[in-house]
Amino acid sequence: MVRFYLIFLLIQGWTVLCGNNIQFANLIVEYEDGNPGSALLTFDLSWENSWRTTADPANWDAAWVFAKYRTQGDTVWHHILLSSPPAAPTGAVIDVLDNTGAMIYATASKSGNASYQQTQLRWNLTANGLENIEGLDFRVFGVEMVYVPAGKFKLGGMNTGTEVNMFHEIAPSWKRPAYSVISSDEIPVGNARGQFNFGVDNPISVPTTIPAAFPKGFRAFYAMKYELSQQQYVDFFNTLTPSQKALRDITGSTGKDTDEVLNRNAISYDDLAGGDATTTAPHVPVGYVSISDMLAYLDWSGLRPMTEMEFEKLCRGPNGPIFGEYAWGTDKIANWEFTPTLLNGSGESLVNLNIITFDAGNAGYSATTKLTTSGTGPLRSGIYSASLTLGSTRVLSGAGYYGHMELSGNQAEGVISVSHTDGTAFENIHGNGHLPANGYADVLTWPQSQHGVGTRGGHYNSSANHLRVADRSTVVITDDTPDVRYAWLQFRGVRGL
């Protein structure tokens, strides 16, 4: 029996309570006895502050785990295709989805660290066109996700809200009540009473319906707990071919145009020498990405983009809107300049959080983000919970209803927009883990232009108004190409069910 052992990269994440990371240890790749055409990936999986609850919101966190292989010395990494797994370790569920990856989470209520020893995934060698595994390198990746239950919810804000272009139902006179999403059925867009509507700043091709296939947030789905980290982008980048790296290099002239730290982006890459990229701020969200960078990562990882309707559900859950609300469910927000310490490390925290104002959420935006030697920029994911000394709440942590972090502020959330037909053509189809040689995502229903993608939630340099849940003032990106890079752009992958 052939066994392969290796040390490999860890994908970092953070929880609501304190710093955490998904960790893999003791990886073994071996043929499966009695099952020709299959191999087993066996590893110990752990992360901190995991949960599953039967109380409201009745959800759990999970690890999305996927793997890549290559022939030793080659530059091309291939996605490992999975089949139904062996028995899960005690206390865990393993859901293999589309043979692309596995969602791993607790079987029963829990609160605390997750530790699943001898976790096994079954590799379908035949599907990958392989007969043996000798002479191969392997990498395993993990992304923290949070489950969002199926169910109805509301889009938009209050009748008298001032948020720009917010979703609403057509009603008599000037009223703009929130629109209730009660199914995944097609939603007509129009001006008749009771119909769905919204404002647009750039009405190039406004849809007349939101198709049934468009993910509205009614059906259950998983979404990344945090914005994508710099380490996660580096790990993606380092599996690309040289030509793909040239296209996805955010340190080049079309991105931040330096290997130095700029606006807290600390990724460096020597394009002349080639090799791997690195970052000295692995826990800080990535920036200087384009729409096409975003889609390429999601195709590579077996995820898909989030829609702006799903964004509002992450923030609000099944609750009705309140006037001027932010992702944490109140209309109040911290408004003093934060003082960070231990910058770029896993212990990066804030030393001056005002924890007396329990209804004011913490978020990184123009009033709170402190200028550093490398400029302004996003704070470490999950920083607010780790900086609190009297305990964490949804409001003080700046968390959405289901436990997703930094939905308001920090980095802008790249989302599929309904303001253009290029966006509403989007369907619940995920990346297959394979990024074509040209370096562009090739999922046919994903937006083919910048018009189908916008942003929600504001960022580190936004005004407070742009951080509000219902605000859609930036939901249409009007630049001429999806390859334009922005220091403040971010994305959060989804697995629809």
TrEMBL record:
Domain of life: Bacteria
Protein name: Formylglycine-generating enzyme required for sulfatase activity
Domain Sulfatase-modifying factor enzyme-like: 193-330
Pfam families, per database record: FGE-sulfatase
